[in-house]
Amino acid sequence: MNIQASLPRILLCATLLMVGCRQMPASTSDPTFGGPATRVLWLQSGATIVGISPELGGRIVYLGREGGSNLLWILERYWQSPPTERLKPAVDGPNFALGGGVVWLAPQSAWWSRQDLDPKKRDRAATWPPDPFQAFADFRIEQQSEQAVVLQGPPSPISGIAFRKTAEVLPDGFIRYTVTATNHSDEPVEWGLWMNFFLRATALPTVPLPTPDTHITFRSEIGQEASLEFQRNDWLFRFLDWNRPGETATGRWTKAFIHGPVERVDVRAPDAHLVFELPSVDSGLVHPEHAFVEIFASAAGKPNRYEVETHGPYRRLSPGESTSLDLRFTVHSPESATEPLGD
Q: pTM for the full model?
């Protein structure tokens, strides 16, 4: 379905009225993110389209190719909620993954261990949900143009951290996405930045490995091993496409931890080839609970999805000190994904 065919221009204009009535930059075939109550800021670089919602933690809600579909896994109904029903940050708030492109802090085991608002989560070292004051905060729009969007989030009472998120158009068809975390508490804190892109099950991530002996570990519902099949040769890693018709792995999930200087992740979908170009980060500086690149595959049927994740250095931040992490992404036609996986 073409969104410009299904929604009159006046409705698109009304949807974006709160941000200056700027049209969506190009046609797409996936209207699920766009209701009259949704506020989305749009950028386009070449054929690459990205949409960001300031009212849902500055989250990326759309990533795709001109004329194509949204590659992100999202719970669509929450993009269309009216303001009175929109998810709000609270200690006892939503306990589920909303999807899109999100930013968390690492390590996951410390998410609730450094706060007093919810002693039960602190005492059991809860690893879910993520900080709701970052996930669902209303970010302030500090800059919006056809070239860049800059959003500033409030300090979280859980972590003491405030996020600043910047998306900027580059001349080569890429969009650079940068997140800066600043310590607003009155004492030092230790965190690493963690970017996570939830992808639809039809968007298969492939990781070119830096060396044949790149170390990969796994975690799954059965322990420290993979419960979903994967393919690896000297230079590439990917999960096998368990989403194919007639095949099922219901209830299974596996995360691959790829330890090493990975430079990019290729995502191959039926109508697009998404490329993430990753920053140069010493993988030894990432918190030992994590890896520089992590690929999560879920066949739990909620629905099925992948997650492409990357981590920055784990750092001690004095009051007022900041740390940043950035990456670049672009979306090509599916024909551009020509690298063979080998045997």
A: 0.89
